[in-house]
Amino acid sequence: MATLPTYRWRLAPDGLATRRQLRARGLRPGGQDVAAQIERPRRRREPLVAYLYEIERAKPVRPMTSAKWAALAKANAARRICPECRRDAGYVIPPSLGMCTPCAYPEEQRAA
Fold first, then answer.
1. Which of 22, 37, 38, 103 would give a disulfide with 99, using CB separation of 3.0 to 4.6 Å?
2. Which of 59, 9, 58 is nearest to 35 (CA)?
3. Cα–Cα distance between 3 and 112 in angstroms, integer?
């Protein structure tokens, strides 16, 4: 069983990047295995670990198709519809409430 090379925070060699760093460059790992990991120490807790990928082997991000854009717009619109009153709330309904604010806090409770 081979172990991954581990580097300390901010000391990774050039040519390696995290997923977020790849995405900022318009790249994705593209199926490659993790090349190394980086650890960020924390007090009284386990260190944070981020996986590193080789930039040379990364592939460009696939562009969004019109069908994907339409599906994303439909999903975001569904998050705005209140399941109680079936109206567009004008904002994404918080999962903690599960309904729009007027339905969650009716007038009777607000007046008290």
1. 103
2. 58
3. 62
Q: Which two tokens stand for residue 69?
A: 């854009």
Query: pLDDT below 70 — which residues of the chain?
Result: 1-2, 108-112
CA atoms within 13 A on the CB side of 85: 13
Amino acid identity for residue 68 in this structure:
K
Cα–Cα distances in angstroms (integers) from residue 77 to residues 61, 81, 89, 99, 104, in the given order: 25, 7, 10, 14, 20
Give the other-Cβ count within 10 Å of 99's Cβ.
15
Residue 1 confidence (pLDDT): 44
Kindly list the distances between the CA atom of residue 3 and the CA atoms of 6, 34, 35, 69, in Å, as whole numbers in the listed order: 9, 11, 10, 40
pLDDT in tens, 44-61: 999 999 999 999 999 999
